[in-house]
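User: Can you model how FE2/S2 (inorganic) cluster sits in this protein?
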Amino acid sequence: MIVCVCHNISDRKIRQAVDAGMDTMPQLRENLALGTCCGKCHFSAKQVLKKCVSDK
Ligand code: FES
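Assistant: Here's the modeled complex, given as structure tokens:
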């Protein structure tokens, strides 16, 4: 599922980033540019991040 349309970032990509140690929104923003365009994905990205971190 695509979470960030602007940067074509899927939930799988977020999971891979979390597995690599990027487990905060600022880190994802910095490394993947997640949410740095229109910002509409911010809420859903946060939800996905939360789920990935809790699954760790
Ligand atoms: Fe993520 Fe636009 S959908 S910045």
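A couple of observations from the model: The chain is about 55% helix and 10% strand. The pocket of FE2/S2 (inorganic) cluster is lined by residues 4-7, 35-41 (CB under 6 Å).
User: Helpful, thanks.
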